[in-house]
Amino acid sequence: MRITGGVNLWDIVAILSFLAFIIAIIGTGVSTFKRKSFRKKWLAVAGVAFVLFIVGVANAPPGENIQPPQTVAEKQEEISLPPETADDEEVAQQGTSGQLKAHFLDVGQGDSILIQFPNGQTMLIDAGTSEAGGAVVSYLKKEGINKINYLVATHPHADHIGGMAAVVHALAVERVYMPRVSHTTKSFENLLATIKTKGLKINKAEAGVTIINQDGIKAGFMAPCSLGYDNLNNYSAVVKVQYGSTAFLLTGDAESVSEQEMIASGANLKADVLKIGHHGSKSSTTKGFLSSVSPKYAVISCGRGNSYGHPHQETLDRLKKAGVQVYRTDAQGTVIITSDGKTLTIKTLSSTQKVRAPDTNSKSISDSIKHAYVK
């Protein structure tokens, strides 16, 4: 017979009998124990209690030993939360193995994006102004990076490639990609000179060129699609990075002309994360392009209180209407997006950076860039 709740009747009998036996023994020690009449009664009670205790123990059902507390605790430690309820921060702290990290660095009014691939390789897209170069190098070294496998200069504007000479000088670089266009600025000249000093060659950055396709990682250029443009921004090397079912589209300063060409090319532009072109200028992120990319998240890289008014309200309105969640380096500092191939984790870092105007120092370098490219 078992009482509701799982307690055995004979367990109760045994416990009560044992208590009675103890009381009887104690009772024999009192002064009344000296009297024979009391002593006989106490001994009789003790004897009955002892017999009942033995019977209760003998009738207890087998196999119901209670586990010691230590065993219970060990089982509790083995319990883990299901993936859908695990905290995002805990997931992010499980290590970089199997993860891709995209760092949108706060370099003020400029661009710099670090990609850490799951296989240990790295890509750096732009490096901000010349004044930001040292900060970019420091950030890379803080992340334990001493080698850049793929270095992409989206276009020759100083707020994108000004700090790149410092990166090439300080770190080992494996491959360099640039669009086929020159510019008459000191920053551009310094970059070419540093590339030459390091014995590196420049690989073409143009639509259809694959950067990496291994270990479940794909990265390649969606633009530029043409050989010549009136606006230097449209030469921007646009990079698409895919890892598992997640994708990033990183557009440099590409404006509406380049965006329309990418749409017309028929390339798959779909991406979860869109780096907004030209720091959020209204000349980029057209309605049609936004529809083709269909991003969930957008990152705008610009300087706090910049003189260009970036990002323009028109761009912000388009993003809001499309239901895109926006992150801004001027408001939130460096933005880090981690992908495990299925989901994204987004973190922002507070930082301060002085806004720098683009380098306007110019010097003719004629056709020097032509000789630097891989034939």
Indicate the topology:
Layout: E1 2-3, E2 7-8, H1 9-27, H2 36-58, H3 69-78, H4 88-92, E3 100-104, E4 113-116, E5 122-125, H5 133-142, E6 147-152, H6 158-161, H7 164-170, E7 172-178, H8 186-197, E8 202-204, E9 210-214, E10 217-223, E11 238-243, E12 246-250, H9 256-265, E13 273-275, H10 287-293, E14 297-300, H11 313-321, E15 325-328, H12 329-332, E16 334-339, E17 344-349
Parallel strand pairs: 5-6, 6-7, 7-8, 12-13, 13-14, 14-15
Antiparallel strand pairs: 1-2, 3-4, 3-16, 4-5, 9-10, 10-11, 11-12, 16-17
Number of domains: 2
Query: How many distinct helices?
Result: 12
Can you give the mean pLDDT?
A: 79
**Number of distinct beta strands:** 17
* CATH evolutionary superfamily of the largest domain: Ribonuclease Z/Hydroxyacylglutathione hydrolase-like
C-alpha geometry: globular
What CATH architecture of the largest domain would you give?
4-Layer Sandwich
Strand arrangement in the largest pleated sheet = 8-7-6-5-4-3-16-17
Which structural class do you get from the secondary structure elements? Answer: alpha/beta
The unreliable regions are 1-7, 28-36, 55-97, 351-371
The fold-level CATH name of the largest domain is: Metallo-beta-lactamase, Chain A
**What is the CATH domain class of the largest domain?**
Alpha Beta
Order of helices and strands: EEHHHHEEEHEHHEHEEEEEHEHEHEHEE
Compute the separation of the termini in Å. Answer: 92 Å
How helical, in percent, are the residues?
Answer: 25-40%
Strand percentage lies at 15-25%
Radius of gyration: 36 Å
Could you give a short account of the major beta sheet?
A: 8 strands, mixed
